[in-house]
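Data card: per-record layout.
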Amino acid sequence: MTSKNLSYKTLVRRNLSSRLWAVVLTLLGSLSALLLPVFVFNQDFQRRMEEYTHLTEAGRTAVTKEQILREAQENIFQILSMDNPFIKIVIVFMAILCGVAVFRYLHDRQQVDFYHALPMNRGRLFVLNYISGILLVLPVFLIVFGLTVVAVMSMKLGGLLTAGGLIQTFLAHIVFFLLNYTLAVVCTVVTGNTIITILLGVWAQLGIPLFAIMIDAWKMSCLQTYVEHANGWYFMSPIIKYFATSAETQGMSLFGASFDSVSGMRALIAPTIWTIVLLALAYVLFVRRKSERAGTAIAFAPLKAPIRWYMCLFMGSACAWLFKTLFIGSDNWEWFGLLLGIVLFHAVVEIIYDFDFKAMFHHWKQMIVICIVAVAALAGLRMDVFGYNRYIPKETDIAAVGLWNMADRSRYGFNWGEPKTRDIVPLTDPESIHLVTQIAERLVPQVGQALFPVDSETEQENNPYTDVYIHYELKNGKRVSRKYVTGEKLIRDLLDPLMQSEGYIKSYMALQQAQIPENTADGDIRLQVTAQMVPMGLGTNYVIEKTTDIERVLDALKEEQIRNVAKHNQEIPVMQMRFLGSAEEDQTAFEEEMYSFLMTDLREMSVYPSDTQTLALLKQLVGLEPQPLDVTRVEWIEIQQFPTKLVADSDDAMEKLITIRDPETIAALTQDICSDNQIYSAGKDVTWENFDRQDYLEFRLYYRDGNRGTSGVSARYPKGKAPIELLRQITGLPLRAE
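The structure for this 738-residue chain is written out next.
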């Protein structure tokens, strides 16, 4: 019994004393990533406070004392939260280093004989070694983390820190250390060579995310209706998951995009479970590992084939994609790259396994099978044998739908960001589900077919391409997305009823989401109303400051947007509204702060001629009515010609600038003209006049602007309203209307 206890103590003492370099590295890394930055930020805080004192005495201060303190507290919070990337680098590096170092004796036959001769069973030996690696890092990290917290509190810069947040951050670092450490242990136990351990560790960390990216790339290339979305497999890597865990929610966010709604301590459940699974796997493999496997590439023969197959398929796909990229326009090279990659990396893996160049084709039959499987998989993907492009769920299986049409984005002002599933506001009413299903049934036969005859430019101009994204949420909880490229007119008769339905408007129109925050005092939020029948700058503005009046106007406009949506498609706005902050508030800061409440697009805040209830209310509240253009204030008009198709040796293809000052000509040109902003907000059937595709004309009106002199505004004509004959005389161009 004494000899056994002595062996346990000796082993732990030997593991720790022989690896003091790990303790030193952990100490240096933790100090550099935690305590040192705290002193740096404190020094900067003290310097800025001294500057603030001097600037205050001189009367030139640009910031307040509270702002300086707040910035310092935010910097300290970042250091002691999951937003600190430097401590993550230290922890990951030490986890992998210790995981390999503690179990590296398995790769040396003499050391294996020594350890396995100790008077203890394999299971206890594994536990002691595993705990030794943890003791090399975590106690030091805990001490430095605690000292950092004490230092911050003594500096009185911990105003944003909470006890719960600090505990949660510390536990998160421990969990991810154990996860990466355990994975390194598994890779060390599985292999018999340290170099192979490193290669396998890199592959274990990045193999699944890279393979998921590769699969998505091939889907985007081969499947015309594939919609890229946030793939959970991208985060099947301890390192990626660790660095993607943010302080705000303790969930997952990468490059500003959130991919995981799990927050708080619940975000640590999955890493903890994976650590337990990997630990159990490492324990079983360690106990069953044969001593004579030291020095070999893979210590377990049954694992060789699956690893070989996986690497050959991945590297073959990567080579196929490389050749596809190099030889654009030809699909044949990707087949060559696929086969070349499989053959080449099959040989490389065999050489690594046996440490012998002669072994490259030892399993050539497996190589042929892998080639056949890869070719069949790629061919099946290209031919869509599983019917991905043709898939449409049954209406009875659909719980909700969403639709996003590129052609209408700039006309309806949808409030849902990029066309991805998580941004879609679902439509659950039977009418919307039926209409969206009908749209999909009409679009599916068009997949893979040419939309227009070759060289049919006129037809493409009259029926331009558009991307339509359709999203289904099934009753079983599954979400499905498809993207279709089609001619805009093909589904217009179905899109219009969908977009004019009450359910669609309430879900997607930005104005419907606008709301005044509770407890808003009069003047905190103001509503500016502009008589918008004239170009920007010539109208009359009025600001409504009473909160109850603003709510009355919003409610009236929301109601009429639903009732008059079909009429709006053929109308030009006569008034426009926008939210303002208080008179003393910076408008940019106000819009950034209040966007979550006032989710309105400028187009959505337009008042149209059919909105009689809103117009009457505005007249009652502020006495404002639509106003015609005061032509007497327009001093001159500039017409600039921009050729869109240059014709060689033709003066008509040159850019020109024409100035009109004659009052009668100005009156004729401005009879039906509108501001750019009006046309931008107009209905989809009232787009501006493009004339022909030979020349593009830009109009700019210059008018007297009170005491400020002369100002200019850009203007456009509604469709069919341009004075074509007069413009032909002025420009000398053979213009034709749309």
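Known properties of this structure: The CA atoms of residues 52 and 61 lie 7 Å apart. The two ends are 99 Å apart (CA to CA).

See the next section for split statistics.
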